[in-house]
């Protein structure tokens, strides 16, 4: 296996890569994914493409014991400034008790990405990550985040991976969808390339038959072609490669073959000192012997003191040829030799654990493996690599079970569930939390298991979460733990719509927490209470509790987020818009500093709802789109995040009157929470907005029935206002009376619902209720109060809508003059804000109020479209008539109204048309 290897058939790919690197140096960075099967030449291509460029390399390894972020550790070690910055961030975490680790992980990833981008200035940098298919989750997380920053940088990341396995099935589509990502597939060599390869190896021309035979046997794979070219066999390329490896190793002295075996057990890339320790020989003797292996072409030098197998397939072949007993003995020797290193640096603990696991299955060995796996998990948690912590804890749990040891197993399962929860694997986390609860020998362990999975609204998990909390509450635990368990039970009850139970549990949790000194328990209790009719809490109390939560922001950004949201809700309720603006600005700043996806999502949602509240619909739509994309990309395990964007689209359609606003997938979203009260009400509401009368009526009949059931809480968030829209649509007096006490309780609320869609004020809902109940004078008084409140808080869309509603009421009371004036104002504002529904209603009302208008209904319709700025051709297309017919109607309008031109028609229309 010696000799140089011809580099053929890669001119096009090579030019592409060099072009990407040049663009990166010029300021347009990229992630280049270089895919192909084993041996296709990805590493050779990367080496050739990066000649003469500033390049650092990292390699993922096929070793389940490898430390988290292994390839990035190698990259950062070659970039001292970037590496020091990341090391400082990790050290900072070590000194901060009570830190929200999930939030800290995101900040650490962001810090590392920023440091890598900065390292590419000013001349550009290429980072090569080899064998991405073996990357750990933490490494992939950093790559995903970095990919989003590359386009505006001078950094190019070239990642090689095998495209023949399922390892990257989840990550690859997400990476490929990024705007800075480019995929390059390395194809097998074609017949002309094989001919050139064989010619260069032989130093003379080769015949057609020989070329065809080599192509058939190698499949165009350069690694296998190399073996075919040096072999007289007739098998396939991989078989001939294995034969060549065996031949090369067999030609070495026995003491050298022993070192090759040690190297194969240690991994694809090895440290000469570690090989020496495992072999029990001085490193000075080992290095020359390994150089013989290099000359045989089995190993290649990497750096001082390090060697690597010529290819992973080579290492696999050597390892598979070892007898099982030899492998196990060498794994045990490796574990013993590496133990001092792991004791000095726990980053090596996972490697030791895996060697023990592969060495024997007796209880003592399994116990050692479990112990080192726990150490590895702690180290992974310290570096915020939660998926890797879960992987190591899985090793530990399995080893304990195989060893027949149950002591401490419940606590180990709690740790595993916690790591899985932090890594976003909520289902497995709850599974292991339940297993921990079943095996818990102390009340504290039982409580810990019940508190692992929190803040989820997933319907399929809520009953199990509630059962865990109830079980733990049956044990005698300290007051602080009991308060947190009560808060957990209250939160679950609120999420499933059991309002009274949720309120009782949350109040009990808060009372218990306030008697103690555990701030975390108090925050849990307060958050649970805020899920249940927070309007019932005194305003000063809400503001105070919000400020308390904000103070935890440095260590727990999510607590700060909840605090700001509570203060925003209180400010909206009272119409303190300056406070609303201040608090939303604080959330935006928190999103920038914490860089947490959940905080960024809430920031987008809050700003979306405020913009829509003020009538800036275009900007609101854009932020809603961004929030939806973020929910899909970063919050996929919480389906409620996606539902919020759909709920916004429905409310926007109700306000603007534009049915195209409704999310086409809203039915699918609602189907995920079929029994949630707001979902039950929203289904027929969608049909109402879409004009699907039969479906709307059928759905509403079901809602009317449910609204009278004891378990259906009309006070649940958003239920009463949305049900009121249905009551209006169907003129349902009976249900209106049922709603009245619920709506009257919120009479003084100026707005609510920030984060989804800021609602109209409480008097508006009561006024609409009065209309349905036939109390016109009361409705007029309430609408006037509503309009004054809307004007004060700058809710322009609601000003337009409520002026229109008041105009309609006044028309029934006989005050047509004031009704006409209000309708004209509503029409003008609706047109300015682009609210086609309100504009059409205002135009229709003005038509009904006009007593002297000479125009026919068709002429009034065309006059309105002229006022909207449409040309005759556009009007003809809209009305499905000929352009000549429109011209005739326009001439008739001008004549009947004694007007000179289209501008005067528009002015007449804007004045109300009468």
Percent of residues in beta strands: under 5%
Low-confidence region ranges: none
Quick one: how many beta strands?
A: 8
The structure class reads mainly alpha
| Largest sheet: spatial strand order | 2-3-4-1-5
The main β sheet shows up as:
5 strands, parallel
Number of helices: 46
Structure write-up:
With 914 residues, this protein is mainly α. Helix content is 67%, strand content 5%. The protein is built from 46 helices and 8 strands. The strands form 2 sheets. The chain has a 5-stranded parallel beta sheet. The chain has a 3-stranded antiparallel beta sheet with strand order 6-8-7. A hairpin with a 2-residue loop joins β7 (299-303) and β8 (306-309). α29 runs antiparallel to α30 (597-613). The protein starts with 10 loop residues before the first helix and ends with a helix. The relative contact order is 0.04. The mean pLDDT is 87.
Brief summary of the model shown:
By secondary structure, this protein is mainly α. Helices cover 67% and strands 5% of the residues.
Write the layout of secondary structure elements.
Elements: H1 11-25, E1 30-36, H2 42-49, E2 55-59, H3 70-77, H4 80-94, H5 101-119, E3 125-130, H6 137-147, E4 155-162, H7 171-176, E5 181-185, H8 191-202, H9 208-218, H10 222-229, H11 237-250, H12 254-266, E6 269-271, H13 272-279, H14 283-295, E7 299-303, E8 306-309, H15 312-321, H16 324-344, H17 349-357, H18 363-382, H19 386-402, H20 409-422, H21 426-439, H22 443-450, H23 462-473, H24 479-495, H25 499-514, H26 519-530, H27 539-550, H28 557-574, H29 577-594, H30 597-613, H31 617-634, H32 639-656, H33 666-671, H34 677-690, H35 693-707, H36 719-730, H37 733-744, H38 762-772, H39 776-793, H40 796-813, H41 816-833, H42 836-849, H43 857-867, H44 872-879, H45 883-897, H46 902-910
Parallel strand pairs: 1-4, 1-5, 2-3, 3-4
Antiparallel strand pairs: 6-8, 7-8
Helix pairs in contact: 1-2, 3-4, 4-5, 5-6, 8-9, 9-10, 10-11, 11-15, 12-13, 12-14, 12-15, 12-16, 13-14, 13-16, 16-17, 17-18, 18-19, 19-20, 20-21, 21-22, 22-23, 23-24, 24-25, 24-26, 25-26, 27-28, 28-29, 29-30, 30-31, 30-32, 31-32, 34-35, 34-36, 36-37, 36-38, 37-38, 38-39, 39-40, 40-41, 40-42, ...
């Amino acid at each position: 296996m010696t000799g140089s290897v011809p580099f053929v058939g890669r001119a096009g790919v090579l030019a592409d890569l060099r072009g990407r690197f040049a663009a990166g140096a010029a300021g347009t960075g990229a992630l280049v994914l270089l895919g192909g099967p084993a041996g296709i030449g990805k590493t050779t291509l990367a080496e050739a493409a990066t000649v003469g460029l500033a390049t650092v390399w990292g390699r993922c390894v096929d070793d389940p014991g490898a430390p988290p972020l292994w390839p990035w550790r190698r990259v950062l070690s070659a970039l001292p400034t970037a590496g020091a910055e990341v090391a400082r961030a990790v050290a900072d975490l070590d000194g901060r008790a009570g830190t929200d680790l999930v939030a800290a992980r995101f900040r650490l990833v962001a810090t590392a990405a920023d440091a890598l981008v900065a390292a590419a200035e000013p001349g550009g940098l290429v980072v090569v990550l080899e064998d991405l298919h073996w990357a750990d989750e933490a490494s992939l997380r950093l790559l995903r985040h970095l990919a989003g920053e590359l386009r505006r940088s001078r950094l190019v990341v070239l990642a090689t991976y095998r495209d023949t396995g399922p390892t990257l099935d989840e990550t690859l589509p997400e990476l490929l969808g990024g705007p800075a990502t480019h995929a390059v597939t390395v194809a097998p060599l074609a017949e002309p390339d094989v001919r050139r390869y064989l010619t260069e190896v032989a130093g003379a021309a080769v015949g057609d038959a020989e070329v065809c035979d080599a192509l058939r046997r190698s499949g165009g794979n350069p690694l296998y072609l190399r073996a075919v070219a040096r072999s007289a066999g007739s098998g396939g390329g991989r078989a001939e490669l294995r034969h060549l490896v065996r031949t090369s190793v067999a030609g070495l002295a026995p003491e050298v073959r022993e070192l090759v075996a040690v190297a194969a057990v240690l991994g694809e890339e090895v440290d000469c000192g570690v090989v020496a320790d495992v072999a029990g020989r001085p490193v000075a003797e080992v290095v020359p012997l390994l150089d013989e292996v290099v000359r045989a072409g089995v190993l290649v030098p990497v750096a001082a003191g390090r060697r690597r197998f010529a290819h992973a397939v080579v290492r696999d072949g050597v390892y598979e040829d070892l007898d099982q007993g030899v492998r196990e003995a060498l794994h045990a020797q490796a574990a013993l030799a590496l133990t001092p290193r792991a004791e000095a640096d726990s980053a090596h603990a996972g490697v030791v654990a895996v060697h023990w696991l592969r060495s024997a299955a007796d209880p003592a060995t399994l116990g050692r493996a479990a112990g080192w796996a726990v150490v590895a998990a702690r180290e992974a948690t310290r570096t915020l690599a939660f998926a890797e912590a879960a992987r190591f804890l899985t090793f530990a749990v399995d080893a304990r079970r195989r060893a027949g040891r149950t002591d401490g197993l419940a606590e180990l399962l709690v740790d595993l569930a916690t790591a899985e929860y932090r890594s976003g694997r909520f289902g497995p986390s709850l599974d292991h939390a339940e297993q921990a609860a079943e095996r818990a020998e102390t009340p504290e362990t039982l409580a810990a298991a019940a508190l692992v999975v929190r803040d989820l609204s997933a319907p399929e998990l809520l009953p199990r979460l509630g059962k865990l909390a109830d079980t733990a509450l049956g044990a005698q635990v300290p007051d602080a733990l009991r308060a947190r368990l009560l808060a957990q039970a209250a939160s679950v009850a609120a999420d499933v719509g059991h309002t009274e139970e949720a309120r009782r549990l949350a109040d009990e949790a808060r009372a218990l927490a306030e008697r103690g000194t555990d701030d975390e328990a108090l925050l849990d209790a307060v958050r649970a209470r805020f899920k249940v009719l927070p309007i019932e809490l005194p305003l000063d109390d809400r503001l105070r509790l919000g400020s308390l939560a904000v103070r935890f922001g440095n260590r727990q950004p999510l607590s700060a987020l909840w605090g700001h949201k509570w203060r925003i809700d209180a400010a909206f309720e009272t119409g303190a818009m300056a406070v609303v603006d201040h608090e939303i600005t604080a959330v935006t700043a928190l999103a920038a500093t914490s860089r947490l996806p959940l905080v960024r999502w809430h920031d987008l949602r809050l700003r979306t709802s405020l913009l829509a509240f003020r009538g800036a619909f275009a900007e609101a739509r854009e932020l809603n789109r961004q929030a939806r994309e973020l929910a899909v990309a970063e919050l996929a395990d919480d389906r409620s995040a996606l539902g919020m964007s759909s709920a916004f689209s429905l409310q926007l359609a109700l306000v603007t009157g534009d049915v195209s606003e409704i999310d086409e997938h809203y039915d699918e979203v609602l189907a995920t929470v079929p029994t949630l009260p707001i979902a039950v009400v929203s289904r027929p509401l969608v049909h109402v907005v879409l004009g699907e009368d039969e479906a709307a009526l059928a759905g509403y009949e079901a809602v009317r029935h449910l609204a009278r059931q004891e378990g259906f809480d009309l006070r649940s968030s958003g239920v009463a206002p949305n049900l009121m829209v249905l009551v209006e649509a169907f003129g349902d007096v009976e249900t209106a009376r049922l709603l009245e006490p619920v709506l009257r309780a919120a009479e003084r609320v100026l707005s609510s619902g920030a984060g989804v869609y800021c609602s109209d004020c409480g008097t508006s809902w009561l006024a609409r209720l009065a209309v349905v109940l036939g109390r016109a004078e009361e409705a007029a008084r309430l609408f006037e109060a509503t309009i004054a409140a809307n004007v004060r808080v700058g809710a322009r869309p609601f000003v337009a809508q409520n002026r229109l509603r008041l105009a309609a009421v006044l028309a029934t009371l006989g005050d047509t003059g004031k009704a006409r004036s209000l309708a004209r104002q509503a029409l003008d504002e609706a047109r300015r804000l682009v609210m086609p529904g309100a504009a059409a209603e205002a135009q229709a009302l003005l038509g009904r109020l006009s007593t002297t208008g000479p125009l026919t209904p068709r002429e009034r319709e065309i006059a309105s479209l002229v006022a909207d700025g449409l040309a005759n051709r556009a009007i003809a297309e809209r009305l499905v008539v000929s352009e000549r017919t429109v011209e005739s109607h326009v001439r008739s309008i001008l004549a009947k109204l004694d007007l000179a031109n289209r501008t005067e028609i528009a002015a007449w229309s804007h004045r109300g048309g009468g």
